[in-house]
What does this fold into?
Amino acid sequence: MQNKHQEHWEDLIITGDLSVLDFFNGDYEVSLKIDGSPAIVYGTNPANGKWFVSTKSAFNKVKIKLCHSHEEIDAHFQGKVADILHACFDYLPRTESIIQCDFICFGDTDSAQPNTITYQFPEVITQKIVVAPHTIWKTDGELKDAYVSGTAPFFVDNDDVKFIQPCVDLIRPEMPQIDVSGVQFLTAKEAAEAKKEINALIRSGEELNWWNLTDILGCKKLAHLYLMMIEIKEDLMDSMIVTDSPRAFIGDEEIVGEGFVLKNDEMIMKLVRREVFSAANFTAQKSW
It folds into this structure.
């Protein structure tokens, strides 16, 4: 699977990509999205066989920032990100694979707010760092050509690292039969602009409804289909059972988490309650 941006479930339908409706007929994986920051990429560089850490800039096409030493971390990064990478370089377990995780926090705390969500742990973390592994990458050449090969393996906590890896159980759903006759789908270029306008509405705190979606999408039936996809998505999210996850809050409101990632051999998509998490994420003060 190529290194592509995860798409929202409902956004996939805008161009008439009906594969989203058949997704659950095949094999797939479901995982809880963890709202960590920054993203950490680490493992063994296949080009030289050396251990490295980095951010998502490990996959840059031009300005690649791979750190095989503390000196290279200081050369490429600064501030809090550099501090985090120094700790990750020292404490993350050595592996021949290439792993991506989200950094949650340093230890000696029972709560953390790495990004938009605040996580509450049942006890004070004694390890040096807390991370949430989620993806294995592979490459037949350089890291800039890496592709997703699967979900990160389960890691056992050690004296230095606590791993956050929630389990998600989902009863295989039956997708409703949806009539798309008469729906005027958008081109890829039109869809990109429509998604920007939808995100702007979410950012402003305005509720997505049939009227404003019809204005954006230009088709009453497509607006209705988009809202139907949101309803199906929220029903799916409500059916998921999450274990081994810290409690999660946006402000004083407790939530299950950021959302879920669904993955098969062809597609990666995310299920997020955008009017809750995405709206908060758009306006959150970033730490770095």
